[in-house]
Specification:
The chain is an all-alpha fold and about 90 residues long. It has one domain. Helices cover about 70% and strands about 0% of the residues. The radius of gyration is 16 Å and the shape is elongated.
Length: about 90
């Protein structure tokens, strides 16, 4: 098994992947139960993001890419791990 595969298996975390997909690639683009923002200060920005079709398409593409490319998932996991140490 290649070193990359060994590392990918070691750092694979299905729960973290699902959470990442939800928090980064899905929930910001609609009124999800876990979303909240400072009203009225961010209302305009939130409305703008949620009505931006191009942003939704880009997020969807990134979601597919991150879920189908092991290196992208591994990099994300390593980034999250290293940010926990700060």
């Amino acid at each position: 098994m290649s070193r990359c595969r060994v590392l990918a298996e070691r750092f694979r975390n299905g729960d973290m992947c699902r959470l990442t997909e939800q928090v980064i690639f899905t929930d910001p683009y609609h009124a999800a139960p876990v979303n909240s923002h400072t009203t009225p200060h961010l209302d305009e920005l939130v409305h703008s993001l949620r009505s931006d079709t191009q942003a939704k398409l880009a997020a969807s593409s990134l979601k597919v890419y991150s879920s189908t490319h092991t290196l992208a998932t591994l990099y994300l996991r390593l980034s999250v791990d290293s940010s926990d140490e700060s």
